[in-house]
């Protein structure tokens, strides 16, 4: 679902970015309210987890691949505004450092994955869960359905962004200037993997994380869930490993296993480099002009496509990428959340003094 540069027009990129900016502005203001001081490390950990999850490609029939995202997990546990920050930071790092997703197309990817996905997922979760108790099975079903619907809608949104390009931007003879895929191609190509494998992975992940936190640390869910009377105190009285410690262990395990994503036999749909396009299947004689012009917009990636290039170890490259990504994303989100809290606290202090 990472749209590369060149697949969508600059106009589309600007519109998507303009639509996403208000969510970033509000999210930076909301984070101090929805994320308490004790939950900032958890937000940083979840952000690192989002980065790792997107490195696990699921092999699909036809030689393509898909991946889960984790945006709905963050939305369900810490609220959708926290998810906006967590996923956006992960996307920035992926684009700038690893060449996964475009820099010009960052607004498109952020709108799909950091805004549409968490808010749709959270809305579905609230709708299905209703007023059920936190520890009810209905809550877990709601989390699973939310993850499934959230990633599917994000995939369809990506399909629309790609599929409208030939109709909106083409030469006088109808030749596409950017993505050559029409809606008739993009919607089935994105719907099938997300309605099946990717949707199932997102559903299991979201429900499993919520199930663990409900059992081990319901107090962590107080910001987004009504807690049963005494739930937090009962959880606190039980000896257990701290959720942040469990999350850290899970992240370490994910880093160790992330090279499994290399087993996917092919790349994701509509993420090919221009030179890899099957021009004949699209009735094209050459790479679309706009795609050829903007595909190489950002050429300063540190570890392109999470590897060390041809002839070098892709597994080592994946491990280095995972470690670097986890460290940078976690630290950036942690510092950002702390900074927002500090600024908000200072503003309140000034208001009280006046």
| DSSP helix fraction | 55-70%
Q: Note the beta-strand portion.
A: under 5%
The total of helices stands at: 13
Largest sheet: 2 strands, antiparallel
Structural class, by secondary structure, is mainly alpha
Mean pLDDT: 86
Output the radius of gyration: 21 Å
| SSE string, helices as H and strands as E | HHEEHHHHHHHHHHH
Order of adjacent strands in the largest pleated sheet:
1-2
Low-confidence parts, pLDDT < 50 over ≥5 residues? Answer: none
Shape: globular
Report on this model:
By secondary structure, the chain is an all-alpha fold. Helices cover 63% and strands 2% of the residues. The chain contains 13 helices and 2 strands. The chain has helices spanning 10-34, 40-53, 71-78, 80-98, 106-129, 137-163, 165-168, 183-195, 197-216, 231-237, 243-257, 289-294, 314-353; strands at residues 58-60, 64-66. The chain has a two-stranded antiparallel sheet with strand order 1-2. Helix 3 packs antiparallel against helix 4 (80-98), helix 3 (71-78) packs parallel to helix 9 (197-216) and helix 6 runs antiparallel to helix 8 (183-195). The termini are far apart. 47% of the residues are buried. The model has no long low-confidence stretch (mean pLDDT 86).
């Amino acid at each position: 679902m990472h749209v590369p540069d060149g697949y969508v027009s600059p106009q589309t990129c600007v519109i998507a970015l303009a639509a996403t900016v208000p969510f970033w502005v509000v999210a930076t203001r909301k984070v101090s309210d929805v994320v308490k001081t004790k939950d900032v490390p958890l937000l940083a950990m979840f952000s690192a987890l989002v980065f790792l999850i997107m490195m696990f490609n699921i092999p699909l029939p036809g030689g393509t691949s898909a991946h889960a995202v984790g945006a709905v997990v963050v939305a369900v546990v810490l609220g959708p505004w926290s998810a906006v920050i967590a996923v956006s930071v992960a996307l920035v790092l992926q684009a700038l450092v690893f060449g996964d997703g475009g820099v010009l197309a960052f607004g498109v990817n952020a709108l799909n994955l950091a805004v549409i996905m968490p808010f749709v997922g959270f809305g579905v979760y609230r709708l299905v869960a209703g007023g059920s108790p936190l520890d009810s099975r209905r809550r877990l079903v709601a989390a699973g359905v939310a993850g499934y619907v959230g990633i599917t809608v994000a995939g369809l949104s990506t399909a629309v962004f790609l599929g409208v390009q030939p109709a909106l931007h083409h030469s006088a003879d109808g030749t596409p200037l950017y993505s050559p895929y029409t809606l008739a191609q993009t919607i089935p190509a994105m719907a099938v993997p997300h309605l099946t494998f990717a949707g199932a992975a997102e559903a299991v992940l979201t429900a499993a994380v919520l199930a663990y936190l409900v059992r081990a640390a319901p107090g962590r869910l107080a910001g987004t869930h009504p807690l049963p009377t005494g739930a937090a105190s009962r959880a606190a009285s039980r000896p257990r490993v701290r959720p942040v410690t469990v999350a850290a262990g899970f992240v370490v395990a994910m880093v160790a296993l992330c090279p499994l994503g290399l087993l996917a036999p092919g790349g994701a749909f509509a993420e090919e480099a221009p030179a890899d396009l099957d021009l004949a299947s699209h009735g094209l004689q050459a790479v679309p002009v706009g795609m050829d012009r903007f595909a190489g917009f950002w050429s300063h990636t540190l570890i392109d496509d999470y590897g060390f290039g041809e002839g070098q170890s892709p597994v080592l490259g994946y491990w280095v990428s995972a470690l670097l990504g986890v460290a940078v994303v976690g630290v950036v989100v942690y510092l950002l959340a702390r900074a927002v809290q500090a600024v908000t606290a200072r503003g309140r202090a000034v208001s009280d003094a006046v």
